[in-house]
Design goal:
By secondary structure, this protein is mainly alpha-helical. It has 2 domains: 40 residues, no CATH class; 103 residues, no CATH class. The chain is built from 4 helices and 5 strands; from the N terminus they run βββαββααα. A 3-stranded antiparallel beta sheet has the order 1-2-3. A hairpin with a 5-residue loop joins strand 1 and strand 2. It is rod-shaped. The protein starts with 7 loop residues before the first strand and ends with a helix.
């Protein structure tokens, strides 16, 4: 047995008499009821559209500022990579293998940040925050980034310490908690 809506019989404000719907204490004929519902839906739709327009109109300003900041940071990092390329020797500092210095497309793959740029934004573009590691041969750069090779296991650990001592004063106070303990221990000895 299906559900059949029960229609009320009454007098509508438009003058119609007959079947219709009752909303609260007000009776509507079907024509007026549909107009009322359509009007309510249009008002809701207009409000929703106005809210969307307000959000969309404010977003480009925020997005533009964020995009500009990201672009500036990206350009600065690009310049930093190009400057480091001039200092590269073409030899991995860890295994002695060939690095990507001469490859215009992949030279960045052989420039490994000593302190990850994601965590140490204050020194991401510091001239000493890097070491030349191979990417394609023994994958020293990848292994270093994935902690397969630890800092202390690098064959160039002495130069890493020298560079870190130069970098340390430039690291932001809130970022220092992420410094590897072996490097902090060395800083304590140096003081």
């Amino acid at each position: 047995m299906g559900y059949l809506p029960k229609f009320k019989v009454g007098h509508c404000d438009c003058g119609a008499v007959g079947n219709g719907r009752k909303v609260g204490k007000v009776f509507y004929c079907f024509l007026c009821y549909n107009k009322m519902k359509t009007t309510e839906q249009m008002v809701k739709s207009i409000k929703r559209d106005d809210n969307r327009r307000a959000i969309i109109n404010s977003e480009p300003k925020i997005r533009l500022m964020a995009d500009r900041e990201v672009t500036d940071r990206h350009n600065e990092l690009d310049r930093w990579f190009k400057e480091r390329r001039k200092e590269m020797k073409g030899i991995c500092a860890n295994c002695g293998g060939k690095s990507c210095r001469d490859d215009d497309k992949y030279y960045k793959f052989s420039i490994a940040h000593l302190l990850p740029k994601a965590y140490f934004k204050s020194v991401a573009t510091h001239p000493d925050n890097w070491v030349e590691l191979c990417h394609f041969g023994n994958s020293c750069h990848t292994n270093f980034d994935n902690h397969m090779i630890d800092l202390i296991d690098l064959h160039c650990f002495d130069s890493v310490i020298e560079k870190f001592v130069k970098i340390y004063p430039h690291i932001a106070k809130e970022e220092r908690r992420r410094i590897p303990s072996i490097l902090l221990e060395y800083i304590e000895v140096e003081k």
